[in-house]
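Review the following:
>
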Amino acid sequence: MSWRPQYRSSKFRNVYGKVASREHCFDGVPITKNVHDNHFCAVNARFLAIVTESAGGGSFLVIPLEQTGRIEPNYPKVCGHQGNVLDIKWNPFIENIIASCSEDTTVRIWEIPEGGLKRNMTEAVLELYGHSRRVGLVEWHPTTNNILFSAGYDYKVLIWNLDIGEPVKMIDCHTDVILCMSFNTDGSLLATTCKDKKLRVVEPRSGRVLQEASCKNHRVNRVVFLGSTKRLLTTGVSRWNTRQIALWDQEDLSMPLIEEEIDGLSGLLFPFYDADTHMLYLAGKGDGNIRYYEIGSEKPYLSYLMEFRSPAPQKGLGVMPKHGLDVSACEVFRFYKLITLKGLIEPISMIVPRRSETYQEDIYPMTPGTEPALTPDEWLSGMNRDPILMSLKEGYKRTSKVVFKAPVREKKSVVVNGIDLLENVPPRTENELLRVFFRQQDEIRRLKDELSQKDIRIRQLQLELKNLRNSPKNN
């Protein structure tokens, strides 16, 4: 790619990254050392959640945003999972509801109390069982309340209706591990990248693959829908093992519109797209740089703007939703950068330099707000609706009226020797497998004995009934 400055008329060509001062960072966080290619971080206007290193299961911290500075080592955690936590995502419509998925094959929904955690949280409001192997990704539907997507290492995407706490659809078109999921603006299409080197555009309710690309020259890792432009952007690796991005038409994946090589580093490239400003941010895992571009509707489509540089490598990045930004400082994007070596979470604000202190309407158009456009039943019946927009000038402090209500379900259980098999992690070692096997053998023996005793009792009752019928009194 040509790195010559391109002098073009753009209000974003002078955007710069501003790192928060040390007292506004989050220090002393035991960030997970897991090598799974996720961000391990989720942010909304009230809380910051970070997956942490922990022994005996998986856990994550939930910290109120105003509680900056050093985090105590004994700070309360969300620690109900029995395997490593692989992904976490905040509900876009209810700010204290977070979904997590784990190596223990479950997806769990947690309700964070007002003001944050005061003690360790081990009980989830909802536990979702359906995957047969570990679950690597969770994603909330962008316009519908209580619809959650989860992708597991069983190569399946399950669609959960949290109103009933059950999976309602399954997308079963992948032949290997799903690496990334991304929705278009109204959530009517789902784009996925997969370890089988294919990019797919799927109709989520039917599971039908609308478009599929076999990426031979561009091994895809991550994908993002570019708002309502009907375009996709993928990051991956070229045949010469250089990091690369490609732009696609969502209605024709036979060939990318453009391919651009970025550099020769080996870390994964995470793409972030801001539909309001049409800016694309590329952040490399393991390096400290964030490049940003402006996306246009005509060739060359991608216009390089600038690069934020930092010597500290990032493990992952959380992104603040638009309604949580500081509009008075002309902030158009905010990252929360995970620096594992320092145990530090560092906010980075992307700022448009403006002299005026008044509200800048040209850089803050109407943006998706905190109100859902559809109910789960409406979406499942086939309805699509664009997100309900809000103005950041007046409404960005408004709280959502949506409340999460966990479905009341009868708890299914299979208790063997005092251990509930459905509540426990599937056996991972041969010894665990043998223990479960012998428990099941004991349970089968006990049930057989119980059955034979009931057979004897049934025969006795049949004889008594026969005697009563044949007794002289009845004649």
Notes: The chain is about 10% helix and 40% strand.
